Amino acid sequence: MKSFALNRRRFLTSVGIAASTVPFAGCDALDGFLSGGSPVRDVLATANSLTYRVQRMLIDADKLAPEFSSSEIRQGQRPNGSTDPNDEAYLAHRTDNFASYRLQVQGLVEKPLSYSLAELQNMPSRTQITRHDCVEGWSCIAKWSGLQLSQLLDEAKVKPEARFVVFHCFDSMNAGLAGNVGYYESIDLVDARHPQTILAYGCNDQPLQIANGAPLRVRIERQLGYKMAKYIRSIELVSTLSPFGKGKGGFWEDYGYDWYGGI
Ligand SMILES: Nc1nc2c(c(=O)[nH]1)N[C@H]1C(S)=C(S)[C@@H](COP(=O)(O)O)O[C@H]1N2
Ligand SMILES: [Mo]
Predict the structure, then answer these.
(1) CATH value at residue 240
(2) Ligand 2 centroid – CA 65 distance (Å)
(3) Residue 188, exposed/middle/buried by CB under 10 A (0-12, 13-18, 19+)?
């Protein structure tokens, strides 16, 4: 294993990247290298997929994101992006305090699932105090409670051809000429099965607030804030991301953000 890692490092150094900066500033480091008309560019599809592959090589699949103690929570989770969706289906669920909400798990699974919030809350839970990093340059430490996504994947029995988990959200964003565009996100099965990847219904010992994504939002603790879809309507197992949005795997990705937002 060790020599494997060393070889990867040598590969990185040989293309002129300091290996130590890659997991944190992968794209910035690679963008310059790829923009100079280098022949290597033709070999590598995009900086984005290279970043993803490099990070997947260097990061242990089960490596945990740092967890903090309660005393390190200084404030409530700062709401960002959509904070008060006014989409019709969402408002209907909101009116009855999400009693009529059901999470759907569908796509490339043997057994599609549909669960109420109460049913999800009765499953074994996990609580973690983690730091949320937004690309806008702020972070926030908060305590999140929910169920591990891996539980649902096991139950639904993911088909072998599935490669990604797509989160479909209730909210849409005004994207200028494109009109209202639904928020969505996606991750690979490594992150989906990671022990800290939870569907959270609680934050800082309270039910998840509307502003932070009630009734259910995902926590993907080794990636940036925009990956952590709020207001989850359904979860879909897929083999390709091309049918969704502009095909880049997420609302912000469709506008240029990296699909793998590693931190
Ligand atoms: N559905 C949905 N999920 C979303 C967003 C959004 O606008 N809509 N914004 C993202 C961004 S950029 C961040 S930083 C976090 C903010 O989560 P918070 O409001 O709980 O801080 O949610 C992410 N998930
Ligand atoms: Mo963000």
Answers:
(1) 3.90.420.10
(2) 18
(3) middle
